[in-house]
Amino acid sequence: MEIWLDSVNLEFIQKVNKLGIMTGVTTNPTLLSKTKDPLKIIERILQIQPGPVTVQVTASHAEEMSLQGTRLQEISPNIIVKIPCTEEGLKAIKDLSENKVNTMGTAIFNTRQALLCALAGAKYVAPYLSHMQQEEPNVWSVLETMFHMTRDYKLNTKILVAAVQNLEQFDQCSAIGLPAITLKERLFSELIQDHERTLERIDVFLTDWQGANFSKTLFSELNFS
């Protein structure tokens, strides 16, 4: 399962990158609008971690979307261009994909949209979980159908679940077998937080070790030369 970070916080991105568990970074116009220099932030994110970075177009018409996507790809091949699933967006996804620009169909709310973006050539589609739940009581069935659809039709498209509200939803996505998920900074912090029972066991191990009159740091006195 790919785990992405939904953030433009450079310090936090660097912290998570050191853990070796982050596939890439997702951004959106709302997050970038809160920065002083969006382009500079995108370039810095590309520099401080090796994975892909998603950047959404801000145009409404296909030609402008394609132009923005092409320019973003020129910045780095690691940029995946996010394009909303609209009629104009599908045109842009097709055009960019034919020109070897990786795209992500975004603002997905049902299986039909996911299928259309996949057929147009999107590498990823991003369903908005929490927003879908407001309209669809069987949201997990919908997501599972999306996953089986891309697999059964042998579409070269991954489902990346966005707008996740809690770790219970993360667990459910994992249980279904969904291939990718993006988490906001708060949830990512919860995900990597040390488990209290793990810390308890560590204390027991160290207490037992020290009680045996060994050095506190295991193997600290060994000479491997």
Features of the shown structure:
225 residues, alpha/beta, TIM Barrel, eight-stranded parallel barrel, 11 helices
Walk me through the topology.
Layout: E1 2-6, H1 10-17, E2 25-26, H2 29-33, H3 38-48, E3 53-56, H4 62-75, E4 79-84, H5 87-98, E5 103-108, H6 111-120, E6 124-127, H7 129-135, H8 139-152, E7 158-161, H9 167-176, E8 180-184, H10 185-192, H11 196-211
Parallel strand pairs: 1-2, 1-8, 2-3, 3-4, 4-5, 5-6, 6-7, 7-8
Query: How many domains is the backbone divided into?
Result: 1
Bin the helical content.
40-55%
Structural class, by secondary structure, is: alpha/beta
| CATH class type | Alpha Beta
Average pLDDT number: 95
**pLDDT below 50 for ≥5 consecutive residues: which ranges?**
none
Rg estimate, integer Å: 21 Å
CA-CA gap between termini: 40 Å
Q: How much of the residues is beta strand, in percent?
A: 15-25%
CATH architectural designation: Alpha-Beta Barrel
Main-sheet strand order equals 1-2-3-4-5-6-7-8
Count of alpha and pi helical runs: 11
How can the largest sheet be summarized? 8 strands, parallel, barrel
Order of helices and strands: EHEHHEHEHEHEHHEHEHH
> Given the C-alpha coordinates, what overall shape results?
globular
The CATH topology annotation reads as TIM Barrel
> How many extended strands?
8
Fourth CATH level, the homologous superfamily: Aldolase class I
Could you explain the architecture of this structure?
This protein has 225 residues and is an alpha/beta fold. The chain has a single domain, classed as Alpha-Beta Barrel (TIM Barrel), CATH 3.20.20.70. Helix content is 51%, strand content 16%. It is built from eleven helices and eight strands. It has an eight-stranded parallel β-barrel with strand order 1-2-3-4-5-6-7-8, surrounded by six helices. Helix 6 runs parallel beside helix 8.
